[in-house]
Amino acid sequence: MAPKRPPSKRRRTNSSDDEAPPPSTSPVKEKGNSNEKGDKAPLVVFAHGAGAPSTSDWMVRWKEMIGEALEAVEVVTFDYPYISGGKRKAPPKAEKLVDHHLSVVRDAVAKHPGHPLVLMGKSMGSRVSCMVVGSDEIDVAAVVCLGYPLKGMNGAVRDQTLIQLKVPTMFVQGSKDGFCPLDKLASTRKKMDCTNELHVIDGGDHSFKIGKKFLESSGKTQDQAEKAAVKAIADFISKSIEEN
């Protein structure tokens, strides 16, 4: 007669702190789909400026920095029709770009439903982003303007779009940006009803480029200045989402 085998031990279905869960029940973390923030991970739609497409070095670098700092579910970049296909034409009036921009936002939201939506833009892209915010079709948690072109080519201050904003708005501006004198922006911000903040990149131009002499005198690097701006953006977005 064969000896009896000892009773088999059943696998525990509930795991303790020091016991890893079975492979079939362990959470899977997929980049671009979910992260520790879950549904709180922001979806960012990032628009380029008038003179360079979404594939420019500047846009690619800032897309990567923003995506990492915000732990974004995705940072969506795109090209406006006038600059797509490798053909670069003069940009039309910002108002004529709203419909295309809005269609990109709709598609992004459909792909990542439930995630807080952040609109971000460089120069002209930030101006169009602020126009898109006014659409009743989308719910925007915050808008971030990188080098907002407050002053038009004729020198007139273009503040009407900003004054109408109802969502938290952040400006990142170079102190030497001729398209947005800081004193003019300060006056505009006082007229705005929405929560708004400003981060200044000392010595930065319209694209935040800081001159060599200014960097030497300040003891900082271009990289440090940009990372400080990105951190300020991340803090602002996090706060805006929590308060939304």
- By CATH, the superfamily comes out as Alpha/Beta hydrolase fold, catalytic domain
Largest sheet: 6 strands, parallel
Strand content: 5-15%
Output the strand order for the largest sheet: 2-1-3-4-5-6
Under the CATH scheme, the architecture is 3-Layer(aba) Sandwich
* Structural domain count: 1
Annotation, overall tally of beta strands: 6
Write down the secondary-structure element order. Answer: EHEHEHEHEHEHH
Shape: globular
What separation lies between the terminal Cα atoms?
73 Å
Protein name: KANL3/Tex30 alpha/beta hydrolase-like domain-containing protein
Pfam families: Abhydrolase_11 (PF20408)
Organism: Rhynchospora breviuscula
Region (Disordered): 1-39
Description:
The protein is 33% helix and 14% strand. The protein is an alpha/beta fold. The protein starts with 42 loop residues before the first strand and ends with a helix. 32% of the residues are buried. This is KANL3/Tex30 alpha/beta hydrolase-like domain-containing protein.
Topology:
Elements: E1 43-47, H1 57-70, E2 74-78, H2 98-111, E3 117-122, H3 124-132, E4 140-146, H4 160-163, E5 169-174, H5 182-191, E6 196-201, H6 212-218, H7 222-243
Parallel strand pairs: 1-2, 1-3, 3-4, 4-5, 5-6
Helix pairs in contact: 1-7, 2-3
Protein name: KANL3/Tex30 alpha/beta hydrolase-like domain-containing protein
Pfam families: Abhydrolase_11 (PF20408)
Domain KANL3/Tex30 alpha/beta hydrolase-like: 42-237
